[in-house]
């Protein structure tokens, strides 16, 4: 019944402005109006990511549930793990609306939200409630902060005790000069503060670094070097892109980060490059343009130990996570892999 409602609801949601439709989807999740196929796991899908035991490697990327409003429901939709946020120390409204655009002909989206969220204390309070499943927080910085590097550590110190992992987000294109923090010296200082905050938590949690798809191979090499020196648990490749190559939508020239299908090849290439540069020393999470089990499998073969979705849910619905997880299990069996870990990086050179 709920699956039928989802198929009926998708065209209706697409009649609404994109951000309004997003709010309606979150409301439906919170109040039990969305499909909840439950956790998905098989011996082939169950895996370990930076010490975390996952039922399957298909995760929800940050940005869908910025304020941790629908965590229990999202954990029942087939995701092996979810990431909420980005959270900043103080609440902030983000950029003026409209700031989210569907590019339906391209199966893509452009957003320029600008870290709109209710702040770390409100988000942390929700995450302190009991739940069953792996949940992480995406760390952000306030737009008007005097020291953005310190903001990441502040958010981790506040929310860290209530989550299973954290992600340092210096790759969003929607906060002015934020991507400058990906430079070697700035990133080294930032990660030093974050890891100090992590080490002061009641329990040690993995810390990931989320990077841009618009970096050169030289810049990627520097990031990998700094990440290894800092003791980061892994890298998430990638965030949204500023590239607009090959788009057909009328919204193609909107300012912001592009996500969805046009990002798949670019983000997968960066993922493979990071896998090669790190020589398998860092667990990787592949993000960007995944809408099918085949694309998730490609990310795994390129070097990812797990994957994350977001934009594909706009077009495929919340039930897509379960569909991709089951499809990934089938592909692993068809290709002779007993477990997802056995497939990681097996096709990396194809994407370089």
Task: Give a written overview of the molecule.
The chain has 352 residues and is of the alpha/beta class. It has one domain (40-351): TIM Barrel, CATH 3.20.20. 37% of the residues lie in helices and 16% in strands. It is built from twelve helices and 13 strands. The strands form three sheets. It has an eight-stranded parallel barrel with strand order 3-4-7-8-9-10-12-13, surrounded by five helices. Helix 6 (184-199) links the parallel strand 8 and strand 9. The longest helix is centred in the middle third of the chain and has 16 residues, at 184-199. Residues 1-5 have low confidence and may be disordered.
**What is the fold named in CATH at topology level?**
TIM Barrel
Q: Name the beta content range.
A: 15-25%
Domain module count: 1
Fourth CATH level, the homologous superfamily: Aldolase class I
Beta strand count:
13
Could you describe the largest sheet, including whether it forms a barrel? Answer: 8 strands, parallel, barrel
Show unreliable segments: 1-5
Mean pLDDT, all residues: 92
Which secondary-structure class do the elements indicate?
A: alpha/beta
Q: Give Rg in angstroms.
A: 18 Å
Shape: globular
Helices and strands, in order, run as HHEEEHEEEHEHEHEHEEHEHEHHH
Q: Please state how the strands of the largest beta sheet are arranged side by side.
A: 3-4-7-8-9-10-12-13
**Number of DSSP helical runs:** 12
- Ends distance: 44 Å
Helical content stands at: 25-40%
């Amino acid at each position: 019944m709920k699956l039928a409602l989802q198929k009926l609801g998708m065209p209706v949601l697409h009649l609404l402005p994109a951000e309004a439709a997003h709010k309606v989807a979150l409301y439906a999740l919170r109040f039990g109006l969305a499909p909840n196929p439950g956790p998905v796991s098989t011996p082939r899908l169950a895996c370990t990511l930076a010490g975390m035991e996952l039922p399957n490697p298909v995760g929800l990327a940050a940005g869908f549930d910025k304020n941790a409003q629908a965590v229990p429901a999202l954990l029942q939709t087939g995701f092996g793990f979810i990431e909420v946020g980005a959270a900043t120390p103080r609440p902030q409204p983000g950029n003026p609306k409209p700031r989210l655009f569907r590019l339906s002909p391209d199966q893509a989206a452009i957003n320029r939200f600008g870290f709109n969220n209710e702040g770390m204390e409100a988000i942390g309070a929700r995450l302190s409630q009991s739940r069953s499943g792996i949940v992480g927080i995406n760390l952000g910085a306030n737009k008007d902060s005097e020291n953005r590097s310190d903001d990441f550590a502040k958010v981790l110190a506040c929310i860290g005790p209530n989550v299973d992992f954290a992600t340092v987000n210096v790759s969003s294109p929607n906060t002015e000069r934020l991507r400058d923090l990906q430079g070697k010296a700035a990133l080294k200082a930032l990660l030093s503060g974050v890891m100090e905050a992590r080490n002061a938590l009641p329990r040690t949690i993995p810390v990931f670094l989320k990077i841009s798809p618009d970096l050169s191979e030289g810049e990627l090499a520097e990031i990998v070097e700094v990440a290894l020196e800092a003791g980061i648990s892994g890298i998430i490749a990638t965030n949204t892109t500023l590239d607009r190559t090959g788009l057909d939508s009328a919204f193609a020239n909107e300012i912001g980060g592009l996500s969805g299908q046009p990002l798949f090849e670019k983000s997968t290439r960066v993922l493979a490059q990071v896998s090669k540069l790190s020589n398998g020393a860092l667990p990787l999470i592949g993000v960007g343009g995944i809408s099918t089990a085949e694309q998730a499998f490609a990310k795994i073969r390129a070097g990812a130990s797990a994957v994350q979705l977001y934009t594909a849910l706009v077009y495929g619905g919340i039930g897509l996570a379960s569909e991709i997880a089951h499809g990934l299990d089938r592909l692993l069996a068809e290709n002779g892999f007993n477990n997802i870990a056995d497939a990681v990086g097996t096709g990396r050179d194809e994407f370089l």
